[in-house]
């Protein structure tokens, strides 16, 4: 029956065979099957997205097809949304094409998700093509559509297109809100080469953004709100990852400042950062945690370890305990830039302080730190070893790229082949390689 279903749903037979073992007994089949009906599949899709396992959505969809379950419009919404959150443009376009092949035309919300995905992939050409596709299907763009397009073009540094969109919005009587100014700043940041005009323009747009009224605070549609998508996520603002967090991590009224301070760190421009801090003070605003992190990053990116450490200490003194773990992580990441002896010592001391204070690394953060620490070419590899040990103590396995680089660093230190750490890391690396579909390798 499954074989017939795979043929009559129009799916390639070889794809079907790759996903199922038709001789499996009922118990084995049930174990491999994601769900049995549309309602259960919708639950699975939402759960995978919530767990950030969007890479499994294609597999779930294949399972639906093999089970003969017809995806609803709502199911495609969840699949495309999940793929957008996972920054998988390829999957977004795949689900769009599948949807259209079933006679379902995407609505404006889905097209906005597609354009947003183009922004994540810095593919402004495709974003423009998707807008033309909307017009072809007579799907009317809304304010969010143009905001997604503006920020998609900004991610690619296409300042010419950003200006054109702004002109069109102004001509249509649409006011420029904070996300427009954020896009303009991002476009200048990403446009190459960087010139003196870049700093001037960024500061100019921060100043001009103050004309924006909080009455215009949200252009979010009921649908995006219902689906749990913040505007920061939809427009790929630098604070997107933190937009669901509470506890004062970021003040959403400071969006333009967030993007501008992030630009300071990326450009290693301490002078612009000081100017922005003065502007913030004149506005009678205090830096939120996101801005604090960008200030620390800016000092470290510019190569001033002492000022970076001092900025961290000043911020800590201004806060009520406990110290947010994000500040510690910003200090560690910044200190490891360039892998200087002084910076690696700061990173080591901070990790030890975190550990003694009861802070823990999660899999994502631990992997990122290990990957950064693994780049240390000289020295005793203390920081990388410490991060590995902290993750092992929590039964966490770093990402495959992080383990590969860490193993390279261990080999570069000419450890004996029977070294306990070397053997364990090598075994972990081979296990991760096998899971990812590669063959084990002798290291």
Per DSSP, the total helix count is: 25
What percent of the residues sit in helical stretches (DSSP H or I)?
Answer: 55-70%
Q: Which structural class do you get from the secondary structure elements? A: mainly alpha
How many strands, which pairing sense, and closed or not: the largest β-sheet? Answer: none
Mean pLDDT: 87
Strand residue percentage: under 5%
Low-confidence stretches: 1-26, 214-218
The total of beta strands comes to: 0
Structure summarized in a few sentences:
This protein is mostly helical.
Would you give an account of this structure?
The longest helix has 16 residues, at 341-356. The model is unreliable at 1-26 and 214-218 (pLDDT under 50). It is built from 25 helices and no strands. Among the domains are: 1-104, no CATH class; 351-443, no CATH class. The radius of gyration is 25 Å and the shape is globular. The relative contact order is 0.04. The protein is 65% helix and 0% strand. Helix 4 (38-50) runs parallel beside helix 6 (73-85) and helix 18 packs parallel to helix 20. With 443 residues, the protein is mainly alpha-helical. PPR repeats lie at residues 107-141, 142-176. This is Pentatricopeptide repeat superfamily protein.
């Amino acid at each position: 029956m499954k074989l017939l279903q795979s043929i009559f749903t129009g799916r390639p037979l070889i794809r079907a065979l790759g996903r199922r073992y038709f001789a499996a007994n009922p118990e084995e089949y049930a174990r491999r099957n994601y769900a049995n009906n549309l309602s259960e599949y919708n639950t699975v899709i939402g759960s995978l997205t919530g767990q950030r396992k969007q890479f499994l959505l294609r597999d779930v969809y294949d399972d639906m097809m093999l089970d003969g379950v017809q995806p609803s419009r709502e199911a495609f919404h969840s699949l495309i949304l999940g793929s957008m959150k996972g920054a998988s443009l390829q999957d977004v376009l795949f689900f769009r094409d599948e949807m259209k092949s079933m006679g379902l035309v995407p609505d404006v919300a889905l097209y906005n998700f597609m354009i947003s995905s183009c922004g994540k992939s810095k593919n402004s050409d495709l974003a423009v093509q998707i807008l033309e596709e909307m017009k072809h299907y007579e799907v009317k763009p809304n304010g969010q559509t143009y905001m997604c397009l503006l920020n998609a073009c900004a991610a690619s540094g296409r300042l010419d297109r950003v200006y054109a969109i702004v002109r069109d919005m102004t001509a249509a009587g649409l006011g420029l809100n904070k996300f427009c100014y954020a896009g303009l700043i991002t476009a200048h940041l990403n446009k190459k080469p960087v010139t003196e005009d870049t700093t001037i323009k960024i500061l100019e747009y921060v100043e001009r953004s103050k004309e924006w009224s909080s009455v215009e605070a949200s252009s979010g549609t009921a649908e995006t709100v219902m689906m749990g998508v913040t505007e920061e996520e939809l427009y790929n603002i630098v604070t997107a990852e933190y937009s669901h967090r509470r506890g004062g991590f970021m003040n959403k009224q400071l969006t333009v400042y967030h993007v501008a301070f992030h630009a300071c760190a990326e450009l290693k421009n301490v002078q612009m950062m000081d100017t922005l801090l003065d502007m913030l003070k004149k506005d009678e605003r205090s830096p939120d945690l996101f801005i604090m992190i960008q200030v620390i990053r800016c000092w470290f990116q510019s190569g001033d370890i002492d000022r970076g450490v001092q900025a961290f200490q000043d911020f800590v003194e201004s806060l009520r305990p406990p110290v947010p773990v994000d500040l510690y992580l910003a200090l560690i990441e910044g200190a490891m830039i360039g892998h200087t002896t002084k910076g690696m010592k700061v990173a080591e001391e901070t990790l030890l302080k975190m550990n003694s204070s009861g802070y823990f690394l999660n899999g994502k953060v631990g992997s990122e730190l290990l990957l950064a620490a693994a780049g240390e070419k000289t020295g005793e590899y203390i920081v990388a070893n410490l991060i590995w040990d902290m993750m092992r103590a929590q039964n966490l396995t770093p990402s495959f790229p992080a383990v590969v680089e860490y193993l390279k660093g261990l080999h570069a230190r000419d450890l004996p082949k029977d070294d306990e750490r070397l053997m364990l890391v090598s075994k972990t690396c081979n296990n991760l390689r096998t899971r990812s579909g590669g063959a084990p390798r002798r290291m």
